[in-house]
Amino acid sequence: MPANATEPENVTAAQAPPVDTPVHPLSAMTTYELRDYRRQLENAIAFFDRQAPVPAVRDDLQATLSALIAEQESRERLTRA
Questions:
Q1: For FRET with 69, which of 15, 28, 34, 75 sits at 20 to 30 Å CA-CA?
Q2: Which pLDDT belongs to residue 1?
Q3: Sign of the CA dihedral 65, 71, 73, 79?
Q4: What is the DSSP letter of 41?
Q5: Residue segments in the chain with a per-residue pLDDT below the cut of 70
Q6: Whole-model pTM?
Q7: Rounded (5°) CA angle 33-39-41
């Protein structure tokens, strides 16, 4: 079977894992979209943490992850209210 969208791409040690740009703002994303985006961000941050020196893009990813976590926590507080 040829490599296509149904097979995951092999990410080598030299390649950063892909982080898709969301179509919607965080507040408009579904719970599942937030979960998947968070996983992508965490994987990319972990990759960049292993680099020496750590690239500046890591700070941007961390800021986005922090905003995403705040959105998830906000939704969790609303469901408990």
A1: 15
A2: 43
A3: negative
A4: H
A5: 1-13
A6: 0.79
A7: 100
How many CA atoms does the CB half-sphere of 15 hold within 13 Å? 7
Q: Is residue 12 part of a domain?
A: no
- 53: CB partners within 8 A, 6+ apart: none
Long-range contact pairs involving 48-51 (C-beta distance under 8 Å, separation at least 24): 48/16
- Pairwise CA distance, residues 23 & 5, whole Å: 19
Q: What is the pLDDT at residue 10?
A: 55
Q: Is residue 17 part of a domain?
A: no
Give the pLDDT of residue 11: 53
Which residues span the domain enclosing 44? Answer: 26-80
pLDDT at 16: 86
CA–CA distance, 61 with 69 (Å, rounded to integer): 12
In a domain, 10, yes or no: no
Q: How far apart are the first and last CA of the chain?
A: 50
Number of domains in the chain: 1
Q: Which one-letter amino acid corresponds to residue 66? A: S
